[in-house]
């Protein structure tokens, strides 16, 4: 563990130098602070909550000059305290580090840092001077000792990173405050550009994203989280509908030679994202898909009332417009192998197979051949084909769906639209424990779905090869499990039968067991997921990378697209350099995550209460009779109003290191 020598954190002064111990202070438990990259020790760390010094020879003036230089560079300039304060403090520290007379003394710098905190309009200005003010107050002798030398200080090796809680919560690390800023400025097309830097499916994501960013939004400490998702929907469909950007090969700066070819296996969100970023880097990309259409689980697993298929298709078509090719009805493991792809001349392969095979419930008489028994994914595929007019599927009677995730919610809400007399949702834990998006749970309630929580299936009841009911038992909560959730156990004597004609097991999915075979040389886990390096997504076979559901297990669309970007970046390095690069910003994110540096953040500057704008939607009585899209786009006036609620909670983090840090992006 890295040893703190001195510093200030959350207002607590730490000083562990000989004879200077601060009473009541205990060394912080910092994780992953020993080195920043290989054999490159971290000498100091500066953040909004304070700073730590790990090397007594660190020059504090230079350390804070580099930190405030980043703040001045990133200031938006809309308010005087931040626009002028960061520059004045930076320049004063810059003069001091060069051994020159500064326009501001230490007292004036501390006063200006406090004025920035108290009067700036956004999080960047409110936070960037905090650590400096605390440092001057607690360790003024260190600053004065450096000033007394009257000689230039050697510039230290450093790296500074600006982020926000919403950015760090997003798997794709989309710069959320920046795209909201562009909406404020009346430039939604610029806002869309910020999103397209990370993935091509803005309109799709704006409909089905699970909103990790909103869960992290600090505006919740005032009233409600900013409607980040509905703002994304607004910019994705501004003026010209759900496909405002015309993709073409002209967008590619440098198209590589024809032999620089990459195969992507799977046309779902992970595969399409990877193909998009590889194409933009100049590679020639072919996408192999087992189904007869692009989209993967986004196409067959998300009903049209949440994601209209024309929206998805328009965004997926970006791949062909950029020069990529799709090969449909091509299944890995039966129509081709990994070896075949390399023999065809592909330099690298990305596996983005998805999880389209259902998981059994494990109850008695669970016979998948029974008429009326469905897996969650299998049922949604039938719904997709019914709505698309490919194959008619009718439901007669009552339906029981087992599960509590988004797939289960899609199943119950689709079943009611398919004409079910009544739809029941059975879940073994409480409603609060359901992993489904809260909005989906509320929508299911609104549409008349009957919830049976703390209830578990024991057996499927059938007659003449057809489902006639489910034997259930009531559950009760017990002690906490390792994840902090209460365990559950059956209540003796609480068994009962729920009649139904259809039972849908929506408790999980897995990779098709016949896709990746031992001869492919790709290691698989005991859960039948592809084993890949967490940082690079490289598998056990050189040149083969994997991401999305086949690597993560059933996950979210945004996480799959993030894997596509990561894979493309590392495939590019593998093919151009023979190895993957070190990425300083990714390393800084790991430090922030491992130490939960946002967890104690709080609102200090008063903010006026102003509750969020909500998107228009069809009434429950209308929408449950059809598969038309439920949620509608907000107006430009509402988009501006909602964008003004963003507090721009930017924070800057900086490290001082022993040696120079390798160049890198992302």
Automatic annotation (TrEMBL):
Q: Which GO terms describe its molecular function?
A: 4 iron, 4 sulfur cluster binding; FMN binding; NADH dehydrogenase (ubiquinone) activity; oxidoreductase activity
Q: Which residues form the NADH-ubiquinone oxidoreductase 51kDa subunit iron-sulphur binding domain?
A: 61-104
Q: Which Pfam families match?
A: NADH_4Fe-4S (PF10589), Pyr_redox_2 (PF07992)
* Alphabetical list of Gene3D superfamilies matching this protein: Alpha-helical ferredoxin, FAD/NAD(P)-binding domain
Q: This protein is called what?
A: Oxidoreductase
